[in-house]
Amino acid sequence: MDSLVLHNGTIVTVDGDSRIIKNGTVRVGSDGQITAVEPSSADTTPADADRVIDVDGQIVIPGLIDAHRHTDFTLVQGLFSELQGGELLKEAIALYHRAEADLDDAFFEAAWRLASLRQLSHGVTTVNAMDFTPELGAETLGEAGLRGVIGPELADLIKPAGPETQLAEAREFIEKYHGTYDGRIAASIAPGGEAGCSRDLWEGIAELRTEYPDLQLHTHIYDSPEADTMAAGSGADDTLALLEAHGLLNDRTLLTHVLHAGREEARRIAESGAHVLHCPTIYSYFRAGEQAWFPLPALQEHGVNVAIGLDDPFWFDSWDLLQEAKHARLLANYEYGAQQWTSYELLKTVTINGARALGLADEVGSLEVGKRADLVVLDPKPARHLPFSNLPSVVMNTLTGGDVATVIVDGEVLMYEGTVDSMDPESVITAAEDARDRLQDTTGWATSLAGSSPPETSIARRIAARPTLRVLKQYGQGFLSEHLP
């Protein structure tokens, strides 16, 4: 007897044959696995299931996968939106140091709970996060019923703690949380990137990867024009060579941004088997310097797996992964010419491609027999969406996270027809409002419905000196004056 059946919907499988089944049925067993994806008929009556959901007129797709996310500062959403990119980065780092000293776990717990609620309500069933409060993230995502891959961000040029302390904390997190919540929560190794890690830290990360070879390594590369110069500070010719030298570049490596890479870097990434995580909106929003855009044609030419993530909530105030994918296509088309992705290919960037990057393609990312039942039901019935043809185009160009009706993870219904069942939205929002008020009182930021502004004396002038001293030690005063704002 099946535990759950979704009946009479249009099923976009994202399987190897890219099937779309009109009037289809998805059956889920009591263990949370998909037992059938098939056309609906009189012979496939769902009456023998514990729960039947009639999705007539609705669209069933795999659960969305946010391939790159930072979550700690969800509650600063809107504070930095009108700042220039360089100014934003200074204020964000400063705010982190101030909050670390003055804000307690309740602030970050409220942030994670709000983030989980927003991800869930937008149809994101799996989150790949790199954060400074990973324990809270693992527990919050796990209790909300979501799937997550989480790594403590390792960055001794940003965080006050040194390499030894950060690596010890990472080991502790891996041992405690990897494989928890019925396997829905996994740990990763998450170095901040060439600009955030010292040579000593990279050496420790290599040892950590040797200890835990099956974990994904999740990092940033080529997100600034100075990336290779930063890598040179750790004794490598360029960023990819830095990873190669430490045995960190292979098919379990996730490379985020890759904005300033070129054709040769794309070839080397493809040969390594590494995956690329693209976050287009933050860079188009702030236009971080004069630059070549994300090298999509070269990555596609060499067959690199590309997934899409939403990145930081304080860079760009959005939680809609469908819209993010739309932005990715429009920006790529603007830069390189039309038809950089078909609509079905674009849907893969937020489903199966993300699953491949996270090492979860055998479990999620498509609707196939034997996979975990992570799926989203979209409701196109409002008059603004009907009638339509070319369903993948409708999903990726027209529908948004606001059209998500039902969310299921591991066969459990977490949201049904817009009502969240696995969390208490009212308490989540109340806690977020209280924490946001404390943030304003602590930092001196002025916020209103009309906008936000930093304190009269910028908090950037009050950050802890230790990260700056560590950068000076590694790169030298001349490098800082030449390359940092």
Automatic annotation (TrEMBL):
Keyword tags: Hydrolase
Superkingdom to which the source organism belongs: Archaea
Pfam families linked to this entry: Amidohydro_1 (PF01979)
InterPro entries (UniProt xref): Amidohydro-rel (IPR006680), Metal-dep_hydrolase_composite (IPR011059), Metal_Hydrolase (IPR032466), MTA/SAH_deaminase (IPR050287)
Domain (Amidohydrolase-related) ranges: 59-413
Any one GO molecular-function label of the UniProt entry: hydrolase activity, acting on carbon-nitrogen (but not peptide) bonds
Protein name per its UniProtKB record: 5-methylthioadenosine/S-adenosylhomocysteine deaminase
